Automatic annotation (TrEMBL):
Domain (Nudix hydrolase): residue spans on this chain: 49-189
GO terms, molecular function: ADP-ribose diphosphatase activity
Keywords for the protein's UniProt record, in alphabetical order: Hydrolase
GO cellular component: nucleus
Gene3D superfamilies found in the cross-reference section: Nucleoside Triphosphate Pyrophosphohydrolase
Single GO biological process annotation from the record: nucleoside phosphate metabolic process
Family classification: Belongs to the Nudix hydrolase family.
Official protein name in the record: Nudix hydrolase domain-containing protein
Length: 208
């Protein structure tokens, strides 16, 4: 019987016990030559590619126009914020793997959808540069269907609890607003994409 996830307790984590992140103290000089210090978190899992992770924008489309261009988003409980978060599919890049290969692999594992090709791969992006060294790439992939949309089975690892949702691209921004009303937190990358898409449509139609 499943139950709602919840935070049971929070405690300080000694650096010596941390498996995934570490804290760093940075000494730097500002434009006036004044010495300053800064604290940040750093992933310990970064491979030789120099890229931590990938976020995937999957474009789901029908070659017969049976449904409108859509994308897949995921819902999962994120312990650091203590809430369910709505995100783009994403994951860490394995050693020896490119961001593009990781995007195709992670998309299939988290959602069951298999991309046919990479449409675009972003330059290296930083996620929260005032807090962490974490970086990533955003990879857009093409997921075509001959006709109707077909949902495939996820390939989740043990301990992963991810729910997928298919949303038509023109309805994405409105759908995310509904998530906020239900108490979900929307990931910044997904929110920014939805806002950009909505703004592009307004500019194209000049409807403000």
């Amino acid at each position: 019987m499943s139950q709602a996830p919840k935070i049971l307790s929070v405690e300080e984590l000694p650096t010596s016990e941390a498996k995934w992140v570490t804290l760093k103290k940075i000494h730097w000089s500002d434009p006036e030559g004044k010495q300053r210090t800064w604290e940040c978190a750093e992933r310990t899992t970064r491979g030789s590619s120099g890229i931590d992770a990938v976020a995937i924008l999957a474009i789901l489309r029908s070659e017969s126009n049976a449904f409108r261009p859509s994308t897949v988003i995921v819902e999962q409980f994120r312990a650091p914020v203590g809430k369910f978060v709505v995100e783009l599919p994403a994951g860490l890049i394995d050693e020896g793997e490119t961001a593009e290969d990781a995007a195709i692999r992670e998309l299939e594992e988290e959602t069951g959808f298999k991309a046919k090709r990479v449409l675009e791969s972003s330059p290296l992006q930083v996620c929260d540069p005032g807090m962490t060294t974490a970086n990533m790439k955003l990879v857009a992939v093409d997921v075509p269907f001959p006709d109707q949309l077909e949902v495939s089975e996820q390939k989740l690892d043990a301990g992963e609890f991810i729910t997928t949702r298919i949303v038509e691209l023109p309805k994405l921004a409105a759908e995310l607003k509904e998530y906020e009303k239900k108490g979900y937190v929307v990931d910044a990358r997904l929110s920014h994409f939805a806002s950009g898409y909505e703004m592009a449509e307004k500019l194209r139609n000049m409807s403000f």
